[in-house]
Structure formats: C-alpha cells, structure tokens
C-alpha cells in the first residue's frame, strides 16, 4: 500500500522491514554498548592454551600437551619463583588436556562455549570476594526472571499519525475583508514559519495494540485491538487469534473480531517438503456470500530466496448469493514473485495482474554498516502510474531505530515518512507534502531527510554513543581491575618461563633463515594500548611456521593478556623470513598461518 493512500491500515513499504536484522547475525558497532558485558572475560580457553583448533583430533591434542608440558616442566627451572610459576602453568595445561581428551567433557565444553563456562549460573572468577559472587548471582537471577516475564507476555504497539501538510507550502493567503465587504487596505503581516506549520492537519490517527502469550511449545494466543479516528469520527475493534503448530508440516491460525463489523479468518500452512509450502487463507463472511480465498504456493530456490505464486478470489458470487460486481470491495488477482533475505541485503520482485489493476513491484534493501540500512523501491501500476520510494533507518541506541523516507508518485503527489521503532513499539508519521508531482518537492523531500539524518548522526548520536562507551569501559576496568592485573601478571610469568626455550628456538631459525619474530604486539593498535607478545608468538613457531587457530580471542594464549578490555583488538607481527622483512596485521579471532608471501615488505 502506498504512503499516499490515506486509509485505515497503513502498510509502510518505504522503510526496511523491522525484522530484517533478525536474520542478519550479530551487530558489531565499535561505538555501541551492545557487546560490552558487565562480567569479566573468562580466565582460560582450553583450545587457546594448547594452541590447537576446535576440530583438533585426539592425537593433535596429545602432541600439543606433551610439547607444552615439556616447555613448562618445573624441574627445568632452578629459581624457586620460576619453579612455582611453571607448576601453576602446568596445572592449567593439564586441565585443558583432561577436558579436551575426554569426548564427553569436550562435548559439554563445546556446547557451553569456548569460554569454558559450564552454565550461565557458573559465576564469578578466582579473584572475586564472596559478596561479589553473591551480587553476581542476584543480578543473574533478576535477568532470568525478567526474561521469563518478557517471554510470557510479549506486546506490540503501533501508532500511525497521518499528517496533511499540503497547505503548509501554499504561498497564497486571502486578503482580509472589511466589515463593509470591501478589501482592506491595511498592510498584511508577513507569514512566519509558525503560521505555515499551523496549516498542517492531522487527517487520520490509527492505533493498534496486541499481546502474545505462549500456551505450551506449539500454541500461541494473540489478543489485540485497533482504533481509527478520522474527521472527528472513529471506530475500533477487538480481535483474538490462536496459532497452533500441529506438526513439522502443518500449522493453523484462527482469528475473529469481537465487535461490529464481525469477521473471522482461517489460515493454514502445509510444508510439502523442506523446500515447498502451500498456504491458504479464508475470510469467513457468514451467509452474505461465498468465502473470499487467498492461496499461495511457494518454493525455496536457493538459500534465502523463495519464489511464490498467490491467487486471490476477492469477493465473488454464486448466482444471486453474494455481492454483485459493482458492489464488490475486493476483486480477484494473481501475483507471481520472488523474494530474498540475506545477511547483507534483501530484495523482492512481484508481477500482479487483476480485474481492476496490474502492477510491477520491485524493491531492494542494503545494509551499509552494522547499524544502517537503505531501501529503494518502485511500483509501476496500471491505475496510478509510477511510484518511487527511497528510505532508510539507523539504530541510534541499543533497542531504538529511527527511519526516514520519501515517496514520489508521478500521478499522486509526494509524501515524507518518519518512523521510530523500539522494542516492538513503533510510531509512524506519514506526511503528505504535495497532492501533485513537483520536481522541487521531490528534490527537497529527498535531500532534507538525508541531511537531517546525517547531521543528527554525526553531531549527536555518534558522539553520545562514544561518550557512553568510554564511560562504560572505564567502569568495567575499574570493576575488574584486580582481574586484569592478575591476568597481566600470569602472562608476564609465562613469558619469563618461555624466554630460555624461545631464545634457543630463535637462534635455530636464524641459522637456517627461517621465521624469526622481530616484534609482535597485541591490543588496540589505533589507540596504542598494546601488550608486547614477541616472545609468546616466537614460542609458537615450529619448523619455520607459525600457526594460531582462530575462533577464540588470542588473549587466552599463554603469554598473552587483554590490555584493553571491551575494545576491538588486533595482532601485529613483524617477522623476518629468508632474509626479508614481513608484516601482518590480524584480527583477534582470525586464523594465523605464517609465513605468507603477501606480507613481504617492499
């Protein structure tokens, strides 16, 4: 439905769908607070400790264990302090081996994540006091209770405010009339911006609210209501819907309105096979006429892409039973289309032909970055001509999105759309700017929203999020200062233990022009918050090759620590191989294999 259609139900097609990011994976915005946790990182990762892949075989696990056990053998160190440190590291290595060499323990460990936490309720870390552990337990219990309440009853609210602003831009103002019917010669006051804005009218207000409650694993109950106010009159209704999944193949939905005009609807979906489905909808109308039907056949073409065909009977009659042709509100149509939803973008193409109208619909949505998406759409109709819309939205806080759009119809005017979405609640304001096509309005209708959103983003949203993130990071580091200091101390102890064996390995590599790590730093390279991990990286070199499996943070590797808790980290390695200098910059979770010819410096 077009934004220019001033109808009761407003189907917004100018902005990306609200659930588009639901299939887009996690969002990683460097200025966002979403990924900052109030809990510290885990102390160890068993795969990182042994420097093996998550898919390592039992033989690879044994080889890694024997190698590190030999390196950290306490008997090789005469200094009592080093001997104690080696014994402590050997316990960490032994624990990693015991878990990963046992198939049952390893499977349990993998299911609960690489951080080694067996359950969400395993809280605290070694340097926490009993009171801190109790506080963590209370916080997690509160979070769990809140989650259960949200899952029990989920609400959704939609408010749509149609604004007619066509008179705002009218330059003409009737001259004042004197009491005797003559035109007054009194000088007219120059209209102000406030005077112009006062000409805008709210043409329609629509509100809809619904609550979803789960009854068992297969049944849902939805209670809702809607209200419409237009030109001083209003109406509303209350609806109820039951959804039930009978099996993996069949699901049914039954809905009905409780106030006049009463109506009922029955929907069903049947999965013929994993790639094919058939859906049907019946609008029950009692004895007034045959039931209007909607039937859809769809099949998945590729991953994320579905082709479909939909037939709508509209209002129809059997003899004298049912509305005559001229009194029908809905007419039959056939649609053929294809839709796709991917991590980065989505698109839809549909051709519809019907008794009253035919149209070609095309739209596409792009994800520009972790928080921003843009949609461009067009609709070529046999009745209204060409309509083009451009819109986009941006996540301005963790749970809030702001959307702006403009729609231009060559035969139906220009409209602007503003939308705010937060946690299932949305407020949409379609604003009619002009009843006819105007290049000037079309240009400013597109430029003003883009400039406004850009200025708001650069001047307020991003600076505010950076300040909040910096404050949150400072709080986290103060809260876990003891943990961070302990992690750094353990890394320094590991480096001291590795110095002697690493020096011998470096000499061997130099003698055969092999891989020699000149410098390795880990942390936030742009901010200069880094840790020197040269010795720890050189210790991982074997036969002129360096392999560091990815998939887990490198701060869990022996000799590493996290110098910038909560920030994006990278590993930069400058190394010499075959008398040539090389340099590699790698992301924290990236798999590392050196040497690589592309790393060679000119």
Give an overview of the whole structure.
InterPro entries: DnaJ-like_C11_C, DnaJ_domain, DNAJC11-like_beta-barrel, J_dom_sf, Mito_inner_membrane_organizer. One of its GO terms (cellular component) is mitochondrion. This is J domain-containing protein. Keywords: Chaperone, Coiled coil. It holds the Pfam family DnaJ-like_C11_C. By secondary structure, the protein is an alpha+beta fold. 26% of the residues lie in helices and 36% in strands. The strands form three sheets. It has a 17-stranded mixed barrel. A four-stranded antiparallel β-sheet has the order 19-18-22-23. The chain has a three-stranded antiparallel β-sheet with strand order 20-21-24, with no helix packed on it. Strand 20 and strand 21 form a beta hairpin. The N terminus is likely disordered.
Can you lay out the helices and strands and say which pair or pack?
Layout: H1 46-50, H2 58-71, H3 80-101, H4 103-111, H5 130-152, E1 153-164, H6 193-197, E2 201-215, E3 219-230, E4 233-245, E5 250-257, E6 264-273, E7 276-284, E8 293-302, E9 305-312, E10 333-341, E11 345-354, E12 358-367, E13 372-381, E14 385-395, E15 400-409, E16 413-422, E17 425-434, H7 439-479, H8 481-511, E18 516-524, E19 529-532, H9 534-538, E20 541-542, E21 545-548, E22 570-577, E23 580-587, E24 592-594
Parallel strand pairs: 1-17
Antiparallel strand pairs: 1-2, 2-3, 3-4, 4-5, 5-6, 6-7, 7-8, 8-9, 9-10, 10-11, 11-12, 12-13, 13-14, 14-15, 15-16, 16-17, 18-19, 18-22, 20-21, 21-24, 22-23
Helix pairs in contact: 2-3, 3-4, 3-8
Keywords: Chaperone, Coiled coil
InterPro entries: DnaJ-like_C11_C, DnaJ_domain, DNAJC11-like_beta-barrel, J_dom_sf, Mito_inner_membrane_organizer
Protein name: J domain-containing protein
């Amino acid at each position: 439905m077009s934004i220019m259609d001033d109808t009761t139900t407003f189907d917004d097609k100018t902005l990306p769908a609200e659930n588009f990011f639901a299939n887009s994976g996690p969002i990683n915005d460097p200025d966002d607070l979403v990924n900052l946790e109030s809990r510290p990182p885990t102390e160890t990762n068993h795969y990182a400790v042994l420097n093996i892949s998550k898919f390592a075989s039992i033989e690879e696990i044994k080889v890694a264990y024997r190698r590190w056990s030999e390196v950290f053998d306490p008997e090789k160190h005469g200094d009592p302090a080093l001997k104690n440190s080696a014994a402590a590291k050997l316990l960490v290595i032994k624990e990693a081996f015991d878990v990963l060499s046992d198939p049952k323990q390893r499977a349990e460990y993998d299911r609960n994540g690489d951080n080694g936490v067996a359950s969400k309720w395993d809280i605290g870390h070694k340097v926490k006091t009993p009171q801190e552990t109790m506080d963590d337990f209370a916080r997690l219990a509160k979070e769990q209770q809140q989650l259960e309440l949200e899952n029990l009853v989920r609400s959704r609210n939609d408010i749509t405010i149609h604004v007619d602003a066509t008179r705002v831009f009218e330059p003409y103002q009737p001259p004042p009339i004197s009491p005797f019917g003559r035109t007054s010669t009194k000088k007219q006051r120059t209209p102000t911006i406030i005077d112009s804005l006062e000409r805008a009218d709210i043409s329609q207000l629509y509100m809809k609210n619904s609550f979803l409650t789960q009854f068992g694993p297969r049944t849902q109950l939805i209670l809702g209501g809607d209200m419409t106010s237009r030109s001083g009159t209003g109406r509303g209704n209350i609806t109820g819907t039951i959804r039930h999944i009978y099996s993996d193949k069949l699901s049914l939905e039954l809905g009905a309105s409780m106030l006049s005009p009463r109506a009922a609807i029955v929907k069903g979906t049947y999965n013929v096979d994993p790639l094919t489905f058939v859906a049907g909808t019946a609008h029950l109308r009692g004895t007034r006429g045959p039931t209007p039907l909607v039937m859809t056949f769809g099949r998945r073409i590729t991953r994320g892409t579905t082709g479909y065909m939909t037939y709508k009977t509209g209002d129809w009659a059997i003899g004298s039973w049912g509305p005559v042709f001229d009194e029908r509100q809905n007419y039959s149509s056939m649609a053929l289309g294809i839709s796709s939803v991917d991590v980065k973008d989505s698109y839809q193409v549909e051709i519809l032909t019907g008794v009253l109208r035919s149209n070609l619909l095309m739209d596409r949505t792009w994800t520009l970055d972790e928080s921003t998406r843009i949609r461009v759409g067009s609709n070529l109709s046999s009745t209204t001509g060409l309509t083009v819309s451009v819109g986009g939205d941006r996540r301005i806080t963790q749970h809030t999105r702001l959307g702006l759009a403009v729609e231009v119809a060559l035969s139906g005017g220009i409209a602007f759309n503003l939308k705010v979405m937060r946690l299932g609640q949305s407020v949409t304001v379609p604003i009619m700017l002009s009843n006819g096509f105007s290049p000037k309005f079309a240009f400013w209708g597109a430029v003003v929203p883009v400039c406004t959103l850009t200025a708001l983003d650069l001047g307020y949203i991003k600076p505010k999020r950076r300040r909040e993130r910096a404050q949150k990071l400072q709080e986290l580091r103060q809260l876990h200062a003891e943990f961070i200091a302990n992690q750094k101390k353990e890394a320094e102890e590991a480096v001291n233990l590795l110095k002697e064996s690493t020096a011998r390995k470096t000499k061997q590599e130099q003698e055969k022009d092999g891989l020699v790590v000149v410098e390795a730093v880990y942390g936030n390279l742009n901010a200069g918050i880094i840790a020197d991990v040269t010795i720890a990286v050189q210790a991982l070199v074997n036969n002129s090759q360096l392999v560091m499996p990815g998939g887990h943070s490198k701060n869990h590797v022996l000799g590493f620590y996290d110098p910038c808790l909560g920030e994006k980290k990278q590993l930069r390695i400058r190394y010499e191989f075959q008398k040539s200098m090389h340099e590699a910059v790698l992301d924290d979770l990236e798999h590392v294999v050196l040497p690589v010819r592309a790393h060679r410096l000119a």
